[in-house]
């Protein structure tokens, strides 16, 4: 199918993008276009105006700043996959990126676009929550920060207001002894996942974090000391999976249970 | 007797694209995606459209030297980018090697997916010279073929990987 007749405005800077979004409540920002492009063609999205932010240099590039990685939202999945940058996540970013869709999509699709699109089955929403990332957001009233775990509110819904633009993804550096695991189940390589489980343990900061994603809405983050020792026991895993906060039913519960066992094994080094 | 058809007003914009080494001026609506502009406005019909939602891979073209979907973005967004469609690889040695291998290994039947397959195959050969069968299959997940069952396609790419002289890559 073809998209509805919309116009494109090219933003010259972030403030200009915010202004353009504020001026037209039916405008949508576009970055790599790999999600919105499909939504447009399917007419699931019918904006009057699309604000093109893909040329904004301020939203590109990635660097390490003291104890965190600062990733521009326009960094493509392919760039993260190829790993030719200073990494502070022990390869987790590259691993997650490599599993997203297909190379032709990864060459254009961006980490920020994927986060803002907030598909429950997409990868960066889950991975950034697992890494304890923080997002910088610029809107009409200035800038603010939101924790990745609080960003998504439900399927395709986030705390972004209509004229807000994601300007940076801040990922805390993992310690040398940190361990991470990111597991997902897709029926076919590159498809949206039916289940995602990810874990991050960092002895230096004492963080033990587990994320369930590809749920009906936002990912569920569980964070407490001793979590992974506790979950070595299959009974404890059952209790966790039965928790109302997760509310995974049917065959997807079985998929999450299987991935959880894999993640525990990865983290504990018993795989 | 003639029927009078009324079409809604269209808002075309004029922009320039660099396609297969040539500068082209195109007038199209902003919503027109690159694949439609290549086919309908540039007469380059090697690029095929299957799903128009980024899944089937038939529309894959090269943008600045790497494969991308041409169905997912407005053609206006490709101003200033180097666009290469399958037509650009007629006299390209790697393109020729891939076409020969596809023919000899029966890597196509109806041919609808083939343009996208050849662009992806090119990327695999250049980016992943060490790819084994499993990796080739993984990389081909973004290109659907409903005739061959993929065996011939995988064999053709394997053959080119074995026989095509690789220029020194960056060691990956």
From TrEMBL, chain A:
EC id: 1.2.99.2
Annotated TM spans: none
Keyword Ion transport attached: no
One matching Pfam family: FAD_binding_5
Gene Ontology molecular function terms on file: FAD binding; oxidoreductase activity
Organism ancestry: Bacteria, Pseudomonadati, Pseudomonadota, Gammaproteobacteria, Salinisphaerales
Organism: Salinisphaera shabanensis E1L3A
Keywords: FAD, Flavoprotein, Oxidoreductase
Keyword Flavoprotein among UniProt keywords: yes
Source domain of life: Bacteria
Protein's name according to its UniProt entry: CutM protein
Domain FAD-binding PCMH-type positions: 1-176
Broad EC category: oxidoreductase
InterPro entries: Diverse_Substr_Oxidored, FAD-bd_PCMH, FAD-bd_PCMH-like_sf, FAD-bd_PCMH_sub1, FAD-bd_PCMH_sub2, Mopterin_DH_FAD-bd
UniProtKB/TrEMBL annotation, chain B:
Keyword entries, A-Z: 2Fe-2S, Iron, Iron-sulfur, Metal-binding, Oxidoreductase
PROSITE patterns: 2FE2S_FER_1 (PS00197), 2FE2S_FER_2 (PS51085)
Lineage of source species: Bacteria, Pseudomonadati, Pseudomonadota, Gammaproteobacteria, Salinisphaerales
Molecular function terms, GO-annotated: 2 iron, 2 sulfur cluster binding; metal ion binding; oxidoreductase activity
Enzyme class, first EC level, given as a word: oxidoreductase
PANTHER family: OXIDOREDUCTASE WITH IRON-SULFUR SUBUNIT, XANTHINE DEHYDROGENASE IRON-SULFUR-BINDING SUBUNIT XDHC-RELATED
EC number of this enzyme: 1.2.99.2
Domain 2Fe-2S ferredoxin-type residues, every copy: 13-89
Superkingdom of source: Bacteria
Residues forming coiled coils: none
Pfam families linked to this entry: Fer2 (PF00111), Fer2_2 (PF01799)
Name this protein carries in UniProt: Carbon-monoxide dehydrogenase small subunit protein
């Amino acid at each position: 199918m073809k998209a509805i007749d919309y116009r494109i405005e090219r933003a010259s800077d972030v403030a200009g993008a915010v202004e353009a979004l504020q001026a037209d409540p039916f405008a949508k920002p576009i970055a790599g276009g790999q999600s919105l492009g499909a939504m447009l063609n399917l007419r699931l999205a019918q904006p009057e105006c699309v604000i093109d932010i893909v040329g904004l240099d301020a939203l590109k590039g990635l660097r390490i700043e003291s104890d965190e990685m600062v990733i521009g939202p326009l960094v493509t999945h392919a760039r993260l996959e190829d790993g030719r940058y200073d990494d502070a996540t022990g390869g987790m970013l590259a691993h997650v990126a490599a599993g997203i869709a297909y190379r032709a999509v990864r060459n254009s699709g961006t980490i920020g676009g994927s986060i803002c699109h907030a598909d429950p089955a997409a990868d960066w929403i889950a991975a950034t929550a697992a890494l304890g990332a923080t997002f910088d957001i610029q809107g009409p009233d200035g800038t603010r920060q939101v924790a990745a775990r609080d960003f998504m509110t439900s399927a395709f819904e986030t705390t972004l207001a209509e004229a807000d633009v994601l300007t940076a993804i801040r990922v805390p550096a993992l310690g040398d002894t940190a361990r991470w695991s990111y597991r997902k189940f897709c029926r076919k390589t590159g498809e949206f996942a039916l289940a995602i489980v990810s874990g991050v343990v960092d002895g230096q900061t004492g963080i033990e974090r587990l994320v369930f994603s590809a749920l009906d809405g936002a990912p569920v983050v569980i964070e407490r000391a001793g979590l992974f020792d506790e979950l070595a026991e299959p009974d404890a895993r059952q209790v966790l999976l039965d928790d109302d906060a997760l509310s995974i039913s049917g065959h997807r519960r079985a998929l999450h249970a299987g991935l959880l066992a894999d993640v525990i094994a990865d983290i504990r080094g018993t795989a | 007797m003639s029927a009078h058809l009324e079409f809604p007003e269209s808002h075309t914009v004029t922009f320039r694209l660099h396609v297969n080494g040539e500068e082209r001026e195109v007038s199209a609506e902003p919503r027109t995606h690159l694949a439609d502009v290549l086919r309908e406005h540039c007469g380059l019909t090697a690029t095929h459209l299957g799903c128009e939602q980024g899944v089937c891979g038939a529309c894959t073209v090269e943008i600045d030297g790497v494969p991308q979907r041409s169905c997912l973005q407005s053609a206006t967004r490709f101003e200033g980018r180097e666009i290469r469609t399958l037509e650009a690889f007629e006299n390209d040695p790697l393109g020729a090697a891939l076409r020969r291998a596809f023919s000899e290994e029966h890597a196509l039947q109806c041919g609808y997916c083939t343009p996208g397959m050849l662009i992806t195959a090119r990327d695999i050969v250049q980016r992943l010279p060490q790819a084994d069968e499993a990796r080739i299959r993984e990389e081909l997940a973004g290109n659907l073929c409903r005739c061959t069952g993929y065996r011939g396609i995988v064999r053709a790419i394997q053959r080119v990987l074995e026989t095509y002289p690789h220029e020194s890559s960056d060691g990956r």
